[in-house]
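Methods: example folding runs. The two proteins below were folded one after another, and each record is reproduced exactly as written to the output file, sequence line first and structure-token line second.
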Amino acid sequence: MPRSILTAVATCALLLAASLNLCAQTPSKSVSRVFPQQFGHFNATAPAAPASNPAGTATDTLETSEAGLLQRMARTYSDGKNDVTLTIAEFRDPTGAYEAYTADLNPDMNASTAGPISAVDGDRLMFELGSFLVQISGSKNIGEADLQSLIKDLRAQADTAPLPPVRAYLPGKDLIDGTQRYAQGAAGFANTVNSLGHPELSAISNDLGFATGAEPEVMAAQYASGQNRAVLLLIAYPNPQLAEQHLRHLWGVVPGGSAGGVIERKASLLSLVIAPSSGAYAARLRQSINYDTQITWNEPSTTATDPPITSTIVKIFIGTGVFMLVAVVLGVAFGGVRILTKKFFPGKVFDRPEEMDVLQLGLSGKRIDSRDFY
């Protein structure tokens, strides 16, 4: 093959590989499409532009390597008197957005009217909508009607996939709001234990199975009631077999182990109570976990019911009558065929004399001839 043809083929292959790599790295759509031109009394004053995390850069590695951050952009709005900055981060899925949301929480935040997964810290409002993590700087300048108008616009474009079920397992009683942390990987777990004041537990990350494909999900939070204090760590696995396997690994690496009673398994969920003020408080926390096992039976089944007694009796009589009718019909048919055969073919089919014989007792000297009877 000529050298020029080989060179052309190689060049085309390189260009194709580069284009495929570029397509793989570039999001299919820019997050700028989500920003409304106007919501409530607020109108955009500039186009959306790339932005950094308003909460700081402490979770940048977590967001990009594990939570699946695709793009973060910001846009400024004004109602003529006040300006607000809307920042939207789009993640690979709602699970990643929720992980980033919990990583930015702190106990000084308060609940807001933006939704169940929202928090406000001074003048900064943060809430999660599907795969979007939304933050508003200058939120005090936004009225409730304007805020709900914005949320309605964003929800129409949000991913509706469900959030991780493990988030609902945490007990609500004694929970220190703002300390909730969710992790789906090693980076999220390290951020979780560090923010909850137990960085020494980062060493058990490998024993949880993040790197081996066990796919654990971690949910944790701080709890307090009077003098009682504890951190509750929940680890959910896809099935009970994986949970039991990793429980045995954790017994040898978690302080207290199974002998201390601080780590237990219930079906696919492991619960670890860290630094409880008392054993009784640890037991109370574990008993408050909102987790119930469910067994699903996929085999087809039917419900057996006894028929009414009157129906059974009627069927018995009908069946008996059918058998009697069949017996009569067969008897008449057999007898009729025999009579007709003997009438039209006497001594040829039935009762042929050469095949008939009469048993004799020999009481008299006269021999009986069977042909005398036919």
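Second run, written to the same file directly after the first:
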Amino acid sequence: MENKKDNNRPLTTGEIAQYCHVTHRGVLKWVESGKLKSYRTPGKHSRVHREDFIIFLKKYDMPIPQELQPALDKTKVLIVDDDRGIVNSLRRVLMLENKYMIETAHDGFEAGKQFSDFKPDFIILDICMPGLDGYQVCANIRADVNNKHVKILAISGLNEPQEIKKIMDLGANDYLQKPFSNESLQQKVDMILNGEKK
């Protein structure tokens, strides 16, 4: 039984091997193939955020250990942007809050797949992306009435009133212009989740 203070500690690959009843090498293969999202410590050891482990378990229909259940209460956020640097930056900022489960996508088509698999509560959606852009992604989501509870924060370097109006008319809850501060992002997310935006 873990102490509460350990509930947010990242997991080692050895711990994951025990949870999944597989070999340590098996976990490393998941990490190397990109199936299991991880990061490296300065000592070159792989660590996995609990939220990412739960996403992995759910994606592959594996049982979720009882001690990891509290993480299921977190708001699920999907970050969609073709700029990987921005995606990673937004992810780091939101992870500091320790109240979100986060998945990412780097284009509109991947966003559609992640939306179906991950079933997010909140989407941070870049408008300008190659191929399927943010307007189309937003329209596709809002076309299904079962998605009306999903909150959408559109982001873009555009500052044209007609572009902002277009994404809002398609169903975005709010808009944030790039570049923006970490504080501005957190404030927008909190306002939308707290119902201060439509």
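Comment on the second run: The beta strands are 11-12, 39-40, 46-48, 75-80, 100-105, 122-126, 151-156, 174-177.
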